[in-house]
Amino acid sequence: MTTSAPHTAAAPDPLAPSPAAALAFADGTLLRAGRPHRVLAGSLHYFRVRPEQWADRLARLAALGLNTVDTYVPWNFHERVPGEVRFDGGRDLARFAGLAQETGLDVIVRPGPYICAEWDNGGLPAWLTGTPGMRPRTSYRPFLEAVGRWFDELVPRIAALQAARGGPVVAVQIENEYGSYGDDRAYVRWVRDALVARGVTELLYTADGPTALMQDGGSLPGHLAAATFGSRPDQAAALLRARRRDEPFFCAEFWNGWFDHWGEKHHVRSAASAADDVGEILDAGGSVSLYMAHGGTNFGLWAGANHDGERLQPTVTSYDSDAPIAEHGALTPKFHALRERLAAFAGPDRALPEPPADPPLLTPRTLEVTRRAALLPALRAAGEPVRAPAPLSFEELGQSSGLVLYTAEPLLPPGRQELTVTGLHDRAQVFVDGTPVAVLDRETSSFSVPGTGARVRLDLLVENQGRINYGPLLGQGKGILGGVRVDRRLVHGWTMHRLPLDEWGRQDVGRAASAAPCDDRAGFATARLTVTEPADSFLALPGFGKGFVWVGDTLLGRYWEIGPQTTLYLPGPLLRAGENILTVLELERFGDHLALTDRPALGPAEEYVETFG
Which one is catalytic: 79, 247, 253, 463? Predict the structure, then answer.
């Protein structure tokens, strides 16, 4: 099979922006309509914010002193099923861009197709990366053909929003930090050509880390080369200007905070540290985009994961990222420190809007919990079984996220027997005849159980904890990718129950919660929340171990007692006046009650500033 890129557009390299483009550059200066200009941007991802709150969060960006909002576009969020592309509701990119324009903000769009963003699978659909032999982010023809079909849906929508057509979009990014991944320059050019062929005429740019290695792999001649970093702006500016003397200095992501992994501390960055480095970028004549200006939330199961070479590092539900605008919209000390620096560059004809008040919060309260269906019986009843000789992966089962319950009945000889699971991605709770016996982590895991010469019922409840979003392990499969052995003998004859929790609606959740009698260990539980006027809150689950929470038919996200976060943000738009049902799927240990609080608990803080060596 050929691996050459299909022809997309007759675009010369280098390629100059269209004369009608809103942004251009000359002699090291960024221009807007021929006049010197600075992009003062902030990242705000529409897919991490409830659509009812878009206007509020955009207004807060404007009050911060920004003139631009930038957002990624996650392919897997819009095309969960091949061929079923959605741009409605919380996926309505055009509405989000329109609200930004009404707020007085320009828009930068970062369409990928890969976005990283600590988002599941870096935004690539699992149905694509799970295709045998797939080579993502390369000139591999099947990958390019899939991207081309997606771009056929996406890019004309972005093109229609461009400034040249009266819209707010002033720039579009080519791929995303490609120099941190590979050196297939033909692929990066193909992405550029694919954008141009589908109507993009505004400024195109690349964004990569501030090292020669990364800039070599990701930048393209003739297009603005931006940098992404969290410290040492003087060194980044020197590198870019040495390589591209005629280009303006643009920090396309300034990491004024950082994200969190389960089991680690909550990463923070002081307001003074962030403001000082932003001030240095601006004093050097640069443009900047704050990553994140407002982080939002990894609702559902959209949080990604990293891998440090030894272990998986799943990302938490919160994407607060210690941003100047907190997860629930509150204005932090970092907001005011950055606003003070940015105000000097707003321009003489642009007075900054007054900072809005923090959003209202519900009065704290305790919610009584009713224990419902026991864990394993409820999960077995939740979906039709799939049978196969060997365990099937999530991808083979046509499932992206959630849980799979694997069941077999191996014969165990008398005595203590060693059982081994190979290729476990990511975590398994092991039950023998209904009794929990072990919790296993990735790759190769073993446990021992007593045998009597009879068959036992072996259940492995496997959780996908988030697909890797960065680095060479992008696109790895989930589930049991190898097999299960008793000593050297493989276990065959498996039944699998698909549990795509993030695809469940109200009826699915209700049916599972009532599918079996309760027990005192784990399973489903419900609580009732009555409100007169909906408002934001934070949900704590004291005494609970690990699981998932739905509000009505919306999966709020994961919780896990190992932290760092111990509350989940509950947006007011998910509530209705009157009674609301909260449903908990607890995997390990029930607590006695739920609690609504008026502040987040994101965990013990640790100062963190990302620095390239």
Answer: 253
